[in-house]
Structures are given as C-alpha cells and as structure tokens.
Amino acid sequence: MLKPYACDPRDSRGRRFPEAMSTFRSPFQRDRDRIIHSSAFRRLKHKTQVFVEHEGDYYRTRLTHTIEVAQVARTLAGALGLNVELAEAVALAHDLGHPPFGHTGEDALSVLMDPFGGFDHNAQALRIVTRLERHYADFDGLNLTWETLEGIAKHNGPVTGPLPYALAEVNAGFDLDLTTHASAEAQVAAVADDVAYNHHDLHDGLRAGLFTEADLMELPVTGPAFAEVDRRYPGLDPMRRRHEALRRVFGAMVEDVIAVAETRLKTSAPRHADEIRAMDGPIIRFSKPMFQGLKTIKGFLFERMYRAPPVMAERARVTAVVNDLFPLFLDAPDRMPADWQPDIAAARDRTELARVVLDYVAGMTDRFALQEHARLFP
C-alpha cells in the first residue's frame, strides 16, 4: 500500500553489478539483510555511542542505537505510506562508517587524515558497503541498490562542494545525484536518528548521574512530560517515573514528525519519489516548536553530558589511542594483519597507504583498539 511518492522497488535504478531478482524478497529487503549480515554491522556492538563501550552494560552502543533508529524509521515510514524496507535499510547502514570511540574517534581521524583527503563517517559507510566488505564471489562490497546507497550518502541532505574521497570514488562509479535531496525514506532515517539519540541520551545521562530529573523538568518537551506523569501517577517510584516521562518525550517527537509530514505531503501532493528529491528542502522534519525545543535539549546535553568532565577525560584518553595507532601503522604497515598486506602492497603512494590504514583503524571496535594500543604501547 505504498503512496505514489514512495520508492517502489519495481522502479529501482538497480545495482552496480546486475543480479537476478530474488523469488521471495524485494531488492530493498535484500539490501537490509545484507547489511545485517555484514561484518561492519556486527562490529557496531563494541563501538561507542557516547560512553566508551566497556563503561557499563546499560549504556547504548552504536549497535543498540542503530537498532533503535531502525525501529523509529519503520514506524514513521509505515505511518506515511513509504517503503518500510528501504527506510530500515538506510537506518541500519547509516552508522557503519563510524570509527571506534564515536565522534571523538572521528574527530581524531579527521585531523590525521587531513593531508590525505580527510575522513567522513558517511563517506566511510559507503566505502564499506561498496568496497571493504569482501564476501561475495562476483563483487566487492554488498552491491546494494542505488536507492539505499543514495540514502546513505544524502540522508542528511544534498552533498555539495568538494567531496570526501570515499564518496567521490563511489559516485564516480554509480552517480548518486548528490545535489538533490534524498528519497522520503532516507529522510525518515535521518529524522529517526535524531529521535533515537535525543531519547536515549537523556536516558543514559540520567543513568550516569550527569544530571537529574529536576534538571529536565526545567526544559521544553521533557518538562511537560514529567509534569503529566506526576499528575497521572502521583508518588510513582523514581525509575518508573523516569521511564514514563521519557517514553512520552519519544512519542511526542514521533507524532510531531508524522503530523508535519502528513500536512506537507498533502499540500505538495508529490506524484513520484523523484518529486520529493527535487523539492527545495526536506519534507520529513520536526515542526518549528518541536525543533526549537529539541535545540534547547541538545544544548543542555552538550554542556551537561557530551562535555561533562568524566566524558571529556575519557575523550582525551581515547584520542591519544587513535593518535598513537594511526601514525604507527602508517610508518610501519607491516605491523598490520596479514590479510591487509595485499591492500598495502597495492598502494601506489603515501596517500593511498594512509587510506588503507584508515580503513583498518576506523574498522576497529573500542575494545580492539584499546587492546592493540596496550599491546603496541605497553
């Protein structure tokens, strides 16, 4: 029951390497399944979201975050008559390119890779699904459909200006129309990412003791949610009160996106997925009041969580780990595992060698990076 503006798998622009159609799965289902079974997806379970993976079993990892994003994306896509399988595939793949230690690791690698073309986790995700996953006999990568690759590349909007080298390489072989917006399904995945991390970072910050429920009662969106719970359930025990309030925050974000999208889609009445791509802005987004409320919450989280002294101390420690490992492997690539040596031997210059080293370091989990650092820098 897809709407006219949804991505119909029968109209897919196909795969870079043509394959026979599955007898029982749509092209976007196959994309989703290949992503789930990839090595990069499995490694997300030991990669940082905010807190380094080993700091506590309760806190979200990059994998649990990705699963939550996919759940929200399915809900939004289903409510709006979009292709749920494509939205889920993009959601599941959107963080595959993240290095160890979350955005801290990305910041460190961006500086280290500046002389060699830079580093961007979205571009790295594309490099993984088109080149670095090497399991199939007929091609490197996962050979995903054009629509899924487009969603990974553009779910945050059109890509203009100088392209990260990893994205430029993919685009040269399979033009992703980078200057247009992505499909509505990819936009859903992007908003689902915002919904998921706004919700779970509040949970994790409370659990870590970086702020309290009293602090959240002073903020938009969260304050009214706690007030409603207190009215309906006076004297509720603290953990249930927290959960009840934050699930209302979660529901308010989802309902806001659906209401705004339904109104905008009804007004613009797009008749094809390409009309969504040609619009002058995203059609899937928060209302202005919700956006402003979430902006205030993000500012609060930035100060009280992302830049909290314990988090900053850990950021400094893991930045030093990345700053040690990358130059070591760049200067002594023979210390990398044997299965990386063919790529090292094929590198024609130091830039290509640095990109191979980046692929190796960025693919590490938190725990493996820490183990390698302890071994190499006792």
Structure description:
Helix 3 packs across helix 9 (184-207), helix 9 (184-207) runs antiparallel to helix 12 (238-268) and helix 9 packs across helix 14. The protein folds into 3 domains: 18-173, Hypothetical protein af1432, CATH 1.10.3210; 184-268 and 280-310, putative deoxyguanosinetriphosphate triphosphohydrolase fold, CATH 1.10.3410; 311-376, no CATH class. It is globular and about 65 Å long. It contains 18 helices and no strands. The chain is an all-alpha fold and 378 residues long.
Going by helix content, strand content and strand pairing, the class is: mainly alpha
CATH class of the largest domain: Mainly Alpha
The number of distinct structural domains comes to 3
CATH architecture of the largest domain: Orthogonal Bundle
Count of alpha/pi helices: 18
Q: Which stretches are low in confidence, meaning pLDDT under 50 for 5 or more residues running? A: none
The helix/strand order is HHHHHHHHHHHHHHHHHH
**CATH H level, superfamily name of the largest domain:** Hypothetical protein af1432
Number of strands: 0
Helix amount, in percent? 55-70%
Write a concise keyword list for the protein shown above.
mainly alpha; Hypothetical protein af1432; putative deoxyguanosinetriphosphate triphosphohydrolase fold; 18 helices; globular
